């Protein structure tokens, strides 16, 4: 059976690698983002379908799924990848700033999962991108750490709720991955790592493809760390 994957935040970084890896594996890919320039270019380069959806806006998400219904698109894979990080002094962190991160990272994961699970007629795979920052914190990362910790809890609760629908739900928790600001890492930064390098978006995308396999029905509710051993370093 041919698969259809929906990827959030697919225009850049790990999301872009997910789009490319799933397309190369013969999966039809639909992805959403707000970076139209990168999104449209990637859609053309990969023959994928791109839609502008601001995931912090529930009404924009509903409009997107109405369009999917009109086009009779159903899904077999969802990857809740979109995420933002804000590093802000905790004593100055406002409710609004905290809420912005929760809306982008956590609420979008809830909303996309619910909409997609209703549109997975033959069951499927939901994969949530968490982070090692959920359990290894640095100062001033409260909003991000809270959002990712909640994504892990949401993952195993949804895994139980969606089991009767033949849908598995797992999380991937990357450590340092070379995207965005991290592309400026130096050789010294890489050398601090037990693997002598930080991760690449492809490392995460290959794990997601493994979890998305139709035959991986017995992996459910898991959180798989992919960090080259960083969280095991003394
Ligand atoms: P990037 O910032 O490289 O890419 C995220 C994409 O999401 C961008 O295209 C961004 O657009 C888009 N986006 C941001 N806000 C919204 C929104 N409201 N609606 C729709 N799209 C939006 O992120 P990464 O690839 O680094 O991270 C991907 C995931 O992996 C995140 O969940 C992150 O927390 C997680 N992760 C990343 C790690 C890392 O080291 N990189 C480590 C651990 C986890 P624009 O660029 O225009 O803002």
From TrEMBL:
Keywords: Oxidoreductase
Record-level Gene Ontology MF annotations: oxidoreductase activity
GO biological process per UniProt: bile acid metabolic process
Pfam families on file: adh_short_C2
PROSITE patterns: ADH_SHORT
UniProt entry tagged with the keyword Electron transport: no
Chain segments annotated as transmembrane: none
Entry-linked InterPro entries: NAD(P)-bd_dom_sf, Sc_DH/Rdtase_CS, SDR_fam
Family per record: Belongs to the short-chain dehydrogenases/reductases (SDR) family.
Designated name of the protein: Oxidoreductase
Protein source organism: Halolactibacillus miurensis
Lineage: Bacteria, Bacillati, Bacillota, Bacilli, Bacillales
């Amino acid at each position: 059976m041919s698969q259809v994957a929906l990827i959030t935040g697919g225009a850049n970084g790990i999301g872009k690698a997910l789009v490319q890896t799933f397309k190369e594996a013969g999966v039809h890919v639909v992805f959403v983002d707000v970076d139209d320039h990168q999104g449209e270019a990637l859609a053309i380069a990969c023959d994928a379908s791109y839609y502008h959806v601001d995931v912090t806006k529930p009404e924009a998400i509903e409009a997107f799924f109405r369009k999917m219904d009109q086009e009779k698109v159903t899904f077999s894979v969802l990857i809740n990848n979109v995420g933002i990080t804000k590093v802000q002094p905790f004593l100055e962190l406002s409710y609004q700033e905290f809420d912005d991160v929760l809306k982008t990272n956590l609420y979008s994961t809830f909303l996309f999962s619910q909409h997609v699970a209703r549109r997975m007629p033959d069951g499927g795979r939901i994969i949530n991108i968490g982070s090692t920052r959920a359990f290894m914190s640095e100062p001033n990362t409260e909003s991000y750490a809270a959002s990712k910790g909640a994504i892990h809890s949401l993952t195993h609760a949804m895994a139980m709720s969606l089991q009767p629908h033949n849908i598995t739900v797992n999380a991937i928790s990357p450590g340092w991955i070379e995207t965005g600001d991290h592309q400026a890492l130096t050789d010294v930064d890489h050398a601090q790592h037990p693997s002598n390098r930080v991760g690449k978006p492809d490392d995460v995308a290959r794990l997601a493809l493994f979890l998305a396999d139709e035959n991986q029905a017995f992996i459910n509710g898991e959180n798989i760390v992919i960090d080259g051993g960083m969280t095991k370093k003394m």
